[in-house]
Design brief:
By secondary structure, the chain is of the alpha/beta class. The strands form three sheets. It has a six-stranded parallel sheet, with helices on both faces. A five-stranded parallel sheet has the order 6-5-4-7-8, with helices on both faces. β9, α10 and β10 form a beta-alpha-beta unit.
């Protein structure tokens, strides 16, 4: 039995029926989870720090006690304890990520009309951002890349206040690698609190944590549900689902490399999805064999096996055009073009969070180091949404300064439009200025 399903399509149109199983992928138990999260939100809103300490003792550190916020000295000491080689590679990643995001900055602009009117758009950073950084396996596998990818766009946008929440380890400390990244980025607000209660604290505020204007950063199902429920009171980056990759491969691809790329996503989570679209049944057979051999050697074999079995696939199509059509229907978080001419193909990609071009651009390069953001739309939402960016941390305000001449020339048209909607006072507001 193959390690994942192999699907043969005659054309791209068949994917709608053959790929229906992928639509079922999502977050199980959402009703029960939502009830639990609503209780957590209400408890934190009512009891503040007391609730944060209680939840942290229950789930992360049995003897946890205040203060919740780390001092600047604690951040600096934690950062200094990290090996210099590790600090150096974090700094290199920071530089690449910052350089990329600097290109995203937008400026305030004004437009002067011939009649003397001035119209424009003012761009301002949000006053305060809250960033959630998962601890990973009790704080032993810190997701430092998540901090870099959330914090650097906020810093480039000019956000003056940035608060970081991350769960403590069993001994109450925060993994020093996360502190090293925070120290390098000159972030002084780091709180030892995680889970849905951290999201509640950032949304509503507690005695220790001031409320924020936007919350960004990935998390588990409880964290994601909390973000969805507080959206509206605060902004959020996106509702993220499990990770996913789709690879298009022609005969120039190396099955060993393809298998490694698919497994780099499958090892994330049993709900992660790894799909490869190939143009040759022989490639499908070779890839299936490589997947089986490589998966058996991974530390996370059980996770990767479940991911491939339930949400993975090797899809065989007759042409590159069909492969592109299927990929656009999937609208994956990550799309790899492991083909001879990726640049010629790029214009035909309509739905993808990020596109990795050619055989030497595996997805982990984007996850950690290249520069583009790795917080990307999942579960098909790349059809209508984009990566986290500098714009996520900005707001745009329209500027309208119409002149007396503009009012004279357009008064009648504006009033007529207002009366079409039955809004007489709107019309009179314009007509009174004669």
């Amino acid at each position: 039995m193959a390690i994942c399903r192999i699907i043969n399509l005659q054309n791209e149109r068949e994917w709608a029926a053959q790929g229906h199983w992928l639509q079922e992928r999502g977050n199980p138990g959402s009703a029960d989870v939502e009830a639990s999260v609503r209780e957590i939100l209400a408890n934190v809103r009512e009891k503040g720090d007391e609730a944060l300490v209680g939840y942290t003792r229950k789930f992360d550190c049995a003897d946890f006690s205040a203060p919740i916020r780390l001092s600047e000295q604690e951040i600096a000491l934690g950062a200094a304890s990290v090996a210099s080689e590790d600090r150096e590679v974090i700094a290199q990643a920071c530089s690449n990520i910052r350089t990329f995001h600097e290109e995203q900055k937008e400026k305030t602009w004004l437009q002067t009309r011939a009649d003397g009117s001035i119209l424009g758009q003012m761009v301002n950073p949000l006053p305060r951002a809250g960033l959630y950084v998962p601890g990973g396996k009790g704080g032993n596998t810190p997701l430092v890349s998540s901090l870099l990818m959330s914090a650097i766009p906020a810093l480039v946008a000019g956000v003056p206040e940035i608060a970081v929440c991350t769960p403590p380890r069993a001994d109450g400390t925060v993994n020093p690698v996360i502190l090293a990244a925070a120290h390098l980025l000159d972030i002084h607000e780091v709180y030892r609190v995680g889970g849905a209660w951290a999201i509640a604290a950032m949304a509503y505020g507690t005695q220790s944590i001031a409320p924020v204007d936007i919350i960004a950063g990935p998390g588990n199902l409880f964290v994601t549900t909390a973000k969805r429920l507080v959206q509206g009171r605060v902004g959020i980056d996106m509702i993220a689902g499990p990770s996913e990759v789709c690879v298009i491969a022609d005969s120039s691809a190396n099955p060993r490399w393809l298998a490694a790329d698919l497994l780099s996503q499958a090892e994330h989570d049993p709900l992660a999805s790894a799909i490869c679209i190939v143009l040759d049944p022989l490639m499908a057979k070779a890839l299936a064999q490589e997947l089986e051999e490589q998966c058996a050697k991974l530390p996370r074999t059980a996770i990767a096996t479940a991911s491939l079995r339930d949400w993975g696939a090797i899809v065989v199509v007759p042409s590159l055009n069909d492969a592109l059509g299927v990929a656009n229907q999937i609208a994956p978080e990550h799309l790899e073009l492991c083909i001879r001419s990726p640049w010629e193909t790029l214009p035909y990609i309509k739905n993808a969070g990020a596109v990795f071009m050619g055989h030497n651009s595996p997805e982990p390069v984007g996850d950690y180091f290249a520069g583009p953001n790795h917080v990307l739309p999942t579960l098909g939402t790349a059809r209508f949404s984009s990566a986290l960016s500098v714009q996520t941390f900005c707001k745009k305000t329209s500027i309208i300064a119409t002149s007396r001449n503009f009012m004279r020339d357009n008064r009648e048209a504006i009033a007529r439009l207002a009366r079409l909607e039955g809004l007489e006072a709107h019309a009179l507001s314009v007509e009174v200025r004669n």
